[in-house]
């Protein structure tokens, strides 16, 4: 039986992302101003975080939420909204973990480029939890509803339990008319570069793929409905 876990939950989040949201938005405006005038995001976010006395989690939220104006425009231009009879490529851990967090009711960011991002960090470890089935089922439902022909699930080999996640996805797609191909490989990010219809919220992949689909946003909308995203800008 999988562990019952509230993925991504931190007791301090209500204080840091609800009570202090105005402070975060002020910091976000400064960070957005700086990076669009040539400052690198890492030192700029450090400067802004120090100035506004932000926690490490708040600083991470800023860095993941705020993007260059040009990057936002390019990502929006590459987003596709229809997948009928198509082949998609899925950044599996990125997508599954974000949905596990959504089904846990934990903090998720609605970012400037329209993606949904979380504040979790894998650091080489992952385990199946009670929300994993819900996440995979939500992915399957969206792919089927969109009429996807084939889905390539790219799973990071160095991450623990990658094989177990592959087996779970394969089992849950038995009987689906979506042909699910699960590949446990090294360097998932680079394998998604130049691909069409990539499913991810990873900024580097979004900047290097040919097109992408916001499955996470669609799955949350259809399977959960209203969600209290943290929206900084």
Q: What is the topology?
A:
Layout: H1 13-19, H2 21-35, H3 41-51, H4 56-65, H5 69-78, E1 87-91, H6 92-104, E2 109-110, E3 116-117, H7 132-145, E4 150-156, H8 162-172, E5 179-185, H9 188-192, E6 198-199, H10 203-208, H11 215-223
Parallel strand pairs: 1-4, 1-6, 4-5
Antiparallel strand pairs: 2-3
Tertiary shape: globular
Mean pLDDT over all positions: 96
Structural class: alpha/beta
Global Rg: 18 Å
- Helical content class: 40-55%
Order of helices and strands: HHHHHEHEEHEHEHEHH
Write up this protein.
This protein is of the alpha/beta class and about 230 residues long. It has 2 domains: about 15-65; about 75-225. It has 11 helices and 6 strands. The radius of gyration is 18 Å and the shape is globular.
List its traits.
233 residues, alpha/beta, 4-stranded parallel sheet, two-stranded antiparallel sheet, 11 helices, 6 strands, 11% strand
Quick recap:
The chain has 233 residues and is an alpha/beta fold. The protein has helices at 13-19, 21-35, 41-51, 56-65, 69-78, 92-104, 132-145, 162-172, 188-192, 203-208, 215-223, and strands at 87-91, 109-110, 116-117, 150-156, 179-185, 198-199. It has 2 domains: 13-66; 76-223.
């Amino acid at each position: 039986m999988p562990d019952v876990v509230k993925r991504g939950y931190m007791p301090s989040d209500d204080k840091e992302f609800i009570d202090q949201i105005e402070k975060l938005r002020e910091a976000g405006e400064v960070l957005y101003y700086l990076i669009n005038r040539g400052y690198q995001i890492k030192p700029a976010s450090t400067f802004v975080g120090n100035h506004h006395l932000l926690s490490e989690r708040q600083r991470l939220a800023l860095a993941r939420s705020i993007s260059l104006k040009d990057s936002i425009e390019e990502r929006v231009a590459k987003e596709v909204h229809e997948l009928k009879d198509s082949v998609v490529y899925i950044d599996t851990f990125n997508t599954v973990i974000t949905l596990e967090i959504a089904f846990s009711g934990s903090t998720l960011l609605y970012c400037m480029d329209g993606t949904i991002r979380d504040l979790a960090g894998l650091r080489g470890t992952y385990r199946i939890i009670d929300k994993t089935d819900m996440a995979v089922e939500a992915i399957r439902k969206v792919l089927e509803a969109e009429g996807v022909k084939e889905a390539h699930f790219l799973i990071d080999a160095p991450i623990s339990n990658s094989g177990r996640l592959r087996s779970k996805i394969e089992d849950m797609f038995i009987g689906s008319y979506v042909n699910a191909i699960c590949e446990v490989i090294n360097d998932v990010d680079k394998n998604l570069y130049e691909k069409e219809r990539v499913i991810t919220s990873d900024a580097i992949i979004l900047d290097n793929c040919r097109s992408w689909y916001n499955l996470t946003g669609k799955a949350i909308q259809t399977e959960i409905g209203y969600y209290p995203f943290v929206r900084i800008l």
